[in-house]
């Protein structure tokens, strides 16, 4: 065989063995700071390094669960909705949590200097009995008040609406995520407390189907590697991380410096080391406050009924091993 023939054979062999990236879709409930990690995983090439071609789509909770079950998306960040559906029999499992704590902050009218000052005041919440409502109740009880000492006003999930309610005096306090604190402060509100300091409460869970776990665990694990590396990048290099979110996140009129500050607030919810795997105490609290109480379930729920954490455990060990060996 001459040189030309050898080159042709080598080229055919090379292209014939080219590994094509697997196309996947990751759904997030909102394009807010809580999901900066997904855009970092794309922008930093973490998905592509794992042989994945990811498309990120914004789909609210229950709709994301339906899309997951129909196969229209592969992974969903609407973890609470997904796992509540799993409680009712949907073939879905939680595979990771982005944070070990909630990312909510309590913002108030400037006249409120301490949590105890909320006695007799109105607090704007999403819905009565939701996670934020329960956390606010715990916060005021720790300040020596009763949950009955505040009046709750259900105003829905929109941060802008609730912040403006405080600004105009309709309410005296509300909760916002880390990305909403800057907006609230722009409007003259005070950032009074970080609700993540109450106790471990894993947040921003991601779910996939039992079918995906059973038939393609390798893909799930590679997706986890990309996402966890992205979370670590957000935590360790927030100034660089925000560059991947400035044009992707729907944060309104926010400057880069404000987004950096908001990101630093967000990463208070992330654990040290390799994130993604909640603590045993955190899992217990999640099942209690995000599943049993809102669904009015009395009996105990076995974690493995809703969670499949074997793969994220493996990823955590492998990434810790690489970090130690450096």
In short:
This protein has 326 residues and is α/β, with parallel strands linked by helices. Helix content is 47%, strand content 17%.
Structural class: alpha/beta
Work out the helicity level: 40-55%
The residue ranges in which pLDDT falls below 50 over 5 or more consecutive positions are: 6-18
- Cα(first) to Cα(last) distance is 46 Å
**CATH superfamily descriptor of the largest domain:** Periplasmic binding protein-like II
The backbone outline, from C-alpha atoms, is globular
Per DSSP E runs of 2 or more residues, the count of β-strands stands at 10
Radius of gyration in whole Å, from Cα?
A: 22 Å
Sequence-ordered SSE layout with sheet pairings:
Elements (H helix, E strand, L loop, with lengths): L2 H14 L5 E7 L7 H8 L2 H4 L2 E7 L2 H10 L4 E2 L2 H9 L4 E8 L4 E5 L13 E4 L5 H12 L8 E4 L4 H9 L5 E5 H9 L3 E5 L8 E7 H6 L1 H20 L1 H4 L14 H11 L13 H16 L7 H4 L3 H16 L1
Parallel strand pairs: 1-2, 1-3, 6-7, 6-8
Antiparallel strand pairs: 4-10, 5-8, 5-9
Provide key terms for this protein.
globular, 326 residues, alpha/beta, D-Maltodextrin-Binding Protein, domain 2, 47% helix, five-stranded mixed sheet
Q: Please, could you describe this protein's structure?
A:
The longest helix has 20 residues. The strands form 3 sheets. A 5-stranded mixed beta sheet has the order 7-6-8-5-9, with helices on both faces. A 3-stranded parallel beta sheet has the order 2-1-3, with helices on both faces. α8 crosses α12. About 4% of the residues have low confidence. 47% of the residues lie in helices and 17% in strands. It folds into 2 domains: 206 residues, 3-Layer(aba) Sandwich (D-Maltodextrin-Binding Protein, domain 2); 94 residues, D-Maltodextrin-Binding Protein, domain 2, CATH 3.40.190. With 326 residues, it is an alpha/beta fold. The chain is globular and about 60 Å long. The protein has 15 helices and 10 strands.
């Amino acid at each position: 065989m001459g040189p030309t023939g050898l080159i042709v054979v080598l080229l055919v062999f090379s292209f014939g063995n080219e590994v094509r990236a697997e196309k996947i879709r990751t759904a997030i409930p909102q394009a807010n700071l809580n999901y900066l990690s997904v855009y970092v995983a794309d922008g930093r090439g973490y998905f592509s390094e794992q042989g994945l071609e990811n498309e990120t789509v914004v789909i609210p909770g229950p709709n994301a669960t339906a899309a997951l079950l129909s196969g229209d998306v592969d992974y969903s960040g609407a973890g609470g909705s997904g796992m509540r559906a799993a409680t009712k029999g949907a073939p879905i499992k939680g595979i990771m949590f982005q944070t070990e704590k909630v990312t909510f902050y309590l913002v108030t009218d400037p006249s409120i200097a301490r949590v105890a000052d909320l006695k007799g005041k109105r607090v704007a919440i999403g819905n009565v009995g939701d996670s934020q409502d329960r956390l606010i109740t715990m916060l005021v009880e720790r300040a020596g008040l009763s949950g009955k000492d505040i009046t709750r006003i259900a105003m829905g999930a929109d941060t802008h609406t609730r912040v403006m309610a405080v600004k105009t005096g309709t309410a005296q306090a509300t909760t916002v995520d880390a990305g909403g604190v800057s907006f609230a402060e722009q409007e003259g509100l005070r950032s009074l407390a970080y609700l993540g300091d109450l106790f471990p409460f894993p947040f921003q869970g991601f779910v996939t189907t039992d079918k995906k776990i059973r038939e393609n665990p390798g893909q799930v694990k590679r997706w986890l590697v990309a996402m966890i590396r992205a979370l670590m990048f957000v935590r360790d290099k927030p100034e660089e991380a925000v560059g991947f979110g400035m044009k992707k996140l729907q944060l309104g009129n926010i400057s880069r410096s404000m987004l950096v500050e908001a990101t630093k607030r967000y990463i208070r919810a992330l654990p040290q080391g390799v994130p993604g795997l909640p603590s045993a105490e955190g899992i217990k609290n999640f099942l209690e406050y995000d599943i049993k109480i809102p669904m009015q379930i009395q009996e105990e729920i076995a974690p493995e009924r809703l969670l499949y954490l074997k793969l994220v455990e493996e990823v955590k060990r492998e990434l810790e091993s690489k970090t130690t060996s450096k």
